Amino acid sequence: MNAYPDRWRKPPQILTDNTWRPIIWSLAAVYLIFAIGGLEVNWTRVSEGLERGWRFVQGFLSPDFSSRWTDISIGLVESLTMTLTSTIVGILISVPIGIGAARNLAPRWLYMFCRGIIAVSRSLQEIIIAIFFVALFGFGPFAGFLTLSFATIGFLSKLLAEDIEDIDESQVESIRATGAGFWQIVNYAVQPQVMPRLVGLSLYRLDINFRESSVIGIVGAGGIGATLNTAIDRYEYDSAGAVLIIIILIVLAVEYSSSIIRGRLQ
Amino acid sequence: MSATPSVWAYRTSRQRLTVWFGWLLTVALFVWCWNLMTADTMWVFVLDAPTQAADLGSRMIPPRWSYLPELMQPLWDTINIATLGTLGGVILAVPVAFLAANNTTPSRWLVRPIALSIIVASRSINSLIWALLLVSIIGPGLLAGIIAIALRSIGFIGKLLYEAIEEIDQKQVEAVTATGASRLQTIHYGIVPQIAPAFFGITVFRWDINIRESTILGLVGAGGIGLKLQSSLNVLAWPQVTVILLLILLTVIASEWVSAKVRSAIS
User: Fold this and answer.
1) What's the domain count of chain A?
2) Chain B residues 148-187 with CB within 8 Å of chain A
3) Distance, in angstroms, between B148 CA and closest chain A CA?
4) Is B2 part of a structural domain of the chain?
């Protein structure tokens, strides 16, 4: 037997252990067999649906903006106002929580408390929060506004706190050496260091909030999701296509403008 | 008048004025949006919220633990939706990413914009909306959920992967090309080893997000534990809702832990 192989083969990169690699791959294969085998698919229903799917593609390519325009515009206004107000309120609340959740600024009890708020806000899905807020505050964009604000708090405070923990401590020290108080340190040593990132994150969250605002309407929290849901339920795929195109265009516009603003800041 | 002010200020007076106007504009915009948004709000219901919350809380406790065994099959379905959906998303996203990356795309003027617009369309539309569409097209069930998750994952995986491809070290690719390797061989030996860690990291990260999202897809009929949530909400069985929410929370935390472990093992 030839001890040396005459062809070079690329060595495995991720699972480098020779005993574990086949075990993990075969476990994955067994899982796949079970998971796919457990699927119950009604193929006649699917093949009937293909024709409807084609109608959706056609509706998407020739969208109908006019016949449901009043519903679409109401939903759109709700979505946009909800997005803006909830982002601003979310930022205002998450700045103090973010400062409180930074280990280098806050005492231990405050740190634990703020991290608790962040964990609660982050672990719950927007749509589940929306279900509860609709039950508590009634249907409409106000429940959506509260949902998005709540979700914004978890997202922004966590990232802001991590940013504050990563700052250059020597600047804090030099400001403290001038005899500055706590808020003066935050204002002159911390804020200038985290501000560009905070603005960038806020714009990113604005983008996310708009996308989420198009979903929470499904459970009654206002916004363009309700319009979209109705259009799809009625099989009006041309109106649904119009709503989807509007959503995509707005997301594109927000993303593009926020990348310009972020580019200017850095 | 002395030109130098006696107190040091961070900004010049002109800058201060601009900043002040910026704030004024933001506040005005906020108030305008707020009025538009709350025009139809029924404040009676809003003021009523604390009593409603107390009422809801008393209905949700104690949780109905005997409902738990019934939830195991939907939970398994949910995990399958997320995993198979991620797999489908990866299979579709990899070619899209190679077509979208500046250094691997066959045509910068024709193919790249198409690939980029696929990524944007997939990213801007939430998986719940994809599920809504697919349930109406191919009928309720797991398959709709899997396809919805896969379609949403294309954008996420595709975007991060094409950015990773664009950041590779071009010298290694050149070295492989110089050996006379074909186009596919160049990708296999020059590019894949460079992006493999990023690729697995992105996939596991997306899987974690997909677990989170697939728990609620049932709300629109796309299978999984969300179906149970929807049916419990419909009959106002709040003790069951508590059990479902706790189970969802546990699943999400577990998947986040797995994903963090795997990602730290890779990098």
Assistant:
1) 1
2) none
3) 13
4) no
